[in-house]
Amino acid sequence: MAGLGAARALRARGISVFVLEARDRIGGRIHTSRMVPGWPIDLGASWIHGARGNPLTGLADEAGLKRVSTQWEPRPVFAPGGTRIETDDAWDLTEKLLDEARAGAETRESDVSLADAIRGLDGWRELGVRERRLVRYHLNSEIEHEYAADWDQLSTWYFDDVDGFPGPDLIFPDGYGALADHLSNGTPIRTGTVVERIERRREGVRLHTRSGETFSARHALVTVPLGVLKAGDITFTHPLSRARQAAIDSIGMGLINKCCLLFDRPFWPDNADAFAYFGETDGYWAEWLSLSRATGQPSLIGFNAGSATDEIETLDDRQTTARAMDVLRSVFGSSAPAPQAVQISRWRSDPFARGSYSFTAVGSDRASCRALAGADWDGRLVFAGEACHEDHPATVHGAYMSGRDASDLIPG
Question: Is the whole-model pTM more than 0.85?
Answer without folding.
Answer: yes
